[in-house]
Amino acid sequence: MAPRRLRIGVAGLGRMGKRHAMNFSQSVPRAELVAVSTPDASERQWAEIHLGPSGVSVYANYEDMLRHEGLEAVCIASVTSVHADQAIRGIAAGKHVLCEKPLATTAEVSQSVVDAAARRPDLKVMCGFSRRFDDSYRDAHAKVEAGLIGRPSVIRSQTCDVLDPSGFFVAYAQFSGGIFVDCSIHDIDLAQWFFGEDSKVQSVSAVGITAVEPGLREYDDRDNAVGVIEYADGRIAYLYCSRMMAAGQEDSTEIIGTHGKLTVNLIPQENLVRIYEPGGIRHELPQNYYGRFKNAFAREAVEFTDCCLDDIEVPVKLASAVTAVRIGAALQQSMISGEKVRFDNAGEGAERAHL
Amino acid sequence: MAPRRLRIGVAGLGRMGKRHAMNFSQSVPRAELVAVSTPDASERQWAEIHLGPSGVSVYANYEDMLRHEGLEAVCIASVTSVHADQAIRGIAAGKHVLCEKPLATTAEVSQSVVDAAARRPDLKVMCGFSRRFDDSYRDAHAKVEAGLIGRPSVIRSQTCDVLDPSGFFVAYAQFSGGIFVDCSIHDIDLAQWFFGEDSKVQSVSAVGITAVEPGLREYDDRDNAVGVIEYADGRIAYLYCSRMMAAGQEDSTEIIGTHGKLTVNLIPQENLVRIYEPGGIRHELPQNYYGRFKNAFAREAVEFTDCCLDDIEVPVKLASAVTAVRIGAALQQSMISGEKVRFDNAGEGAERAHL
Amino acid sequence: MAPRRLRIGVAGLGRMGKRHAMNFSQSVPRAELVAVSTPDASERQWAEIHLGPSGVSVYANYEDMLRHEGLEAVCIASVTSVHADQAIRGIAAGKHVLCEKPLATTAEVSQSVVDAAARRPDLKVMCGFSRRFDDSYRDAHAKVEAGLIGRPSVIRSQTCDVLDPSGFFVAYAQFSGGIFVDCSIHDIDLAQWFFGEDSKVQSVSAVGITAVEPGLREYDDRDNAVGVIEYADGRIAYLYCSRMMAAGQEDSTEIIGTHGKLTVNLIPQENLVRIYEPGGIRHELPQNYYGRFKNAFAREAVEFTDCCLDDIEVPVKLASAVTAVRIGAALQQSMISGEKVRFDNAGEGAERAHL
Amino acid sequence: MAPRRLRIGVAGLGRMGKRHAMNFSQSVPRAELVAVSTPDASERQWAEIHLGPSGVSVYANYEDMLRHEGLEAVCIASVTSVHADQAIRGIAAGKHVLCEKPLATTAEVSQSVVDAAARRPDLKVMCGFSRRFDDSYRDAHAKVEAGLIGRPSVIRSQTCDVLDPSGFFVAYAQFSGGIFVDCSIHDIDLAQWFFGEDSKVQSVSAVGITAVEPGLREYDDRDNAVGVIEYADGRIAYLYCSRMMAAGQEDSTEIIGTHGKLTVNLIPQENLVRIYEPGGIRHELPQNYYGRFKNAFAREAVEFTDCCLDDIEVPVKLASAVTAVRIGAALQQSMISGEKVRFDNAGEGAERAHL
């Protein structure tokens, strides 16, 4: 009598992996978290404590999890460097795949996931661009589609993390693909979404500094950067990414059209409380990306589950994830080289050999 | 292997009933909606379409639903006038009860529910003061408990509905108990929560007008009203309730302490989108109470379910619901009589015979 | 060739007096501050230093200042208890008079100023309700007049001062007329302005507490109070006044109409700067009434000067000042007595003997 | 006895000229507007009506105005193309000079004004960067100087005008120097002010589009543009300028430091009124640059007057105006050429021959 539930496993139990696992465990009535996998012993210990009592199987090895009886889908939240490989192996094993962004740190490797998915049209494969599931971004997108602001012409968008003085981001830079691929990829995806998925990039340029983490230079990364994307049809997206925010996570977007403008989260807020005290009026902010987008992550999980169970198309095309990586990697390259990167007519970086 | 789920039924499928039913059906992984009941044929038809496919049984009669095999709990969302009776019958049948506010329109009848619950300490019985489950109110309460603003001394709170030109509120006034019992009861409950559940009221006074709905006078009701509650220990709560808002639902609260102030939702917002257009910058508002508090309703359902399954105390004491009705009814009385209503030392209205 | 300038003197050099003197000296091109008077020796010393070099004569005695050769107008900023007497003597001496609010702490004495002014229609006599000269209040009033919100039906307005732990407000309470006459008189005047100058009050009621300054009780005053004004034509104004704000001066107003609502200064701000820091986003507030309304005070001085020089009617009718005191004193009476004060048909307090 | 007043003349009575003239006439007690000059007959007619009655002499010819008896200072508000020439002639005639920005559209011509001023150290010569006189920018600057946000590392700043569908900006583009010189020069000046006047630019790059005014291309201009300035000491300023805003003038600035961030005017507002109506909550914006900065213009005039009368140094160094033009012109060049412009070690554009 009870409706059928999607049996899903989560790969990777780092910060995002734990959240995905808890989400599928507690917030997605149509899904049943049946397995998790992680090579990290302490993460497996966490899983035994928090998920074991609900009957979730805990694997050290991703391949073993793929063989879990009855498993239908996987959510990949491992380190970025194995995203593509795990996605392709999941597809090969006949599982639906929800993969954390980015698919990979290069367009070429990202494309290999798209190619694998193309060979299995029966499976649902989606890259998790969480903002596309956020109420506010969806409302803004619907308003743009309805013509409220005329032709969207300029987008300003930023992904700015709280300063983490522990040095985390230096270590993380080895694998992240760089700040434009790790952070700005969300903003790049938004630009594609708002301007049109098939918008052609003409050039990108970027500059970056290390205001607080000089150690990032060793990995060709920066802690604050500004990037500009020129589109072939006379539009501009300009981006700011940072690891240095004092007050909280600041992910803001402006979509500027010929007849109006929309902003999303221009002044971030944790909730609706305001504090009046000596010194003024104050409000708190989400302290990380998940704090800002937790409802979006839940909805992403719910909708992905619905797509798998009801065999409907996933709301974010997988090819978008390749485009976003291509642009992000080009920005990263421009930031390091100091040179503008021009794209050829096919919308691919002319100097894409560098990517 | 799958964890046990609470089998619950929803009584009443009006505006709030539908929402409760969908909530328990889709947003509470540990609950299973197994039955609904409503005397209204069109509401039953809605249920057959939206809930039938998931195996939910649809009853015309509340008693029949109570006899549904395996039913463990009921959520009562019927018209206010039957809240108390259905709650008492649910308790008598050995079901956990989550009852929409108010328990009744008089303190005496409300008390009868408390008495019934007292005879069945094994059951969870809770009145749904939804704001207590809202993230922002909870954050504010935690900050007050932590001493952030010193001693809370003055509370301003309002519950203001959008203007409904259909005449709905006139018809509704026959059963609602009046604007202070229907709307301000939330604000009264907040005052008790922030000032302390055992705070003693000294007097209440109120004034009201009919700015848009003169027909309300026939039912001794008003469309805009201001009430003032004096507490015996030198505190004040002052309330505004209205059925006349143009922009959206406006439920705002200020808690003013000796060292600071907190506001909750001082400027309501639907989401984080802002619209720039000729005429200025604009943002949309929730259009009704549920729009503002939908996350709170979901959390209320989740937590009530947890309490039932795990046998833990419900987070809102049932007695609070009686106090809130007593104060609300006294405000309503004062608004109509034009006289201040004084409470005796026991915290009960001296003129409570009128209530 | 240079245009003629109004020769004006300022009486009283306390906090507001100093500001008025500096205003007329520096911000009103068409006025020339020629004299000041104060019985306080230290205030005269301040004047010798700050105004003497500009040729301003400093008097210990108000009568002597009135005899200053060529003096055309006086601005009265002395303690409230001498406002009316100085105003009447200024009128008798043939001077235009700009008098700080309130004219007096009783309606009767206030009326005596109106009577004196009526005998000299050639003179400009105005009570300084500064908010009427504030850009934002004027914009709101123009929008209401234009019908933007339908019929204004409910006004919420507050005048809330920063906590001054020095005990200043206790000493001040002896002369101020009480918190409703001293603070809320601005809000009362706004209600009259927005509802119509000839609006008839039906009743007022008020409650008050001493949350931080119990010493105020000796002078029948309170540090936090809420007042409600019922109008005969079905409108309500409700007011909050406080001496206990932590963050800054909070003078907010809402005008709620049948088709919309306007707010003025709902979230106070010192300027357009926002501070992002650990703990959140913060902004500063004006720390006192003058900080909020300094532009309004300057404009008040400019417009009063224009009225005198160009013989045009003053923008605030003097009779309004009597009405405001009548209502304020009735609220103060209600707060102390605990009884509602009802007004008779002529719009005067039925129990006005008490005032 | 009345204090001495500075006798000043205003050159040019276009939009800004009229405002400067009214300012000196009405808002600067220590100044006396004695003359104006403009080659435009209709502007002279306006002056006869509005300024003639106050005794202001109206000239068709700037040289004639310079010979006005007793004239001590000039405010130059003519078209940009004559700024430098009029300033140099004013200096030669021994007049203090307040010149509207920019001094010229090239750094070379701007420098000629600095050179002329250097030969007359007895005169006050200032370029009117109005934002430096704005309360909010000054407060932000003081906070940065006090170390509130650590080391300022990234500045985002924009100057965005309301869409003017009349074609005004196309005609204006012939003389304005382009959008970066005309609009962003304020933001460039702010970057220099916040980062330090002697900050060295390493490179600038820019992109631009014509979203609404293709006619601008004829004059090598754009209606929306983004520019990025790299500083040699590891800082970034990024700028947006637009002629296409729907809601009003949007001049916002963020100063991002290693320990915090300040924003100025992130959400523009005309005043403190908020409008609640079907569709949401709305507030109006200033409709042009002057609306946003009128208080700053008044203060600029007051302070310039004080400097002249009291022989104190002007608050904005004249050399800053050359730096700002150099950077603005390089951005404009980059936008048109599509190439990054690199500056040599002396902080001057390596390719400055192009400017």
TrEMBL record, chains A, B, C, D:
It comes from the Eukaryota. GO terms for molecular function: nucleotide binding; oxidoreductase activity. This is Uncharacterized protein. SUPFAM superfamilies: Glyceraldehyde-3-phosphate dehydrogenase-like, C-terminal domain, NAD(P)-binding Rossmann-fold domains. Residues 137-262 form the GFO/IDH/MocA-like oxidoreductase domain. Keywords: Oxidoreductase. GO terms for cellular component: cytoplasm. It comes from Thyridium curvatum. Residues 6-123 form the Gfo/Idh/MocA-like oxidoreductase N-terminal domain. GO terms for biological process: NADPH regeneration. Belongs to the Gfo/Idh/MocA family. Pfam families: GFO_IDH_MocA, GFO_IDH_MocA_C3.
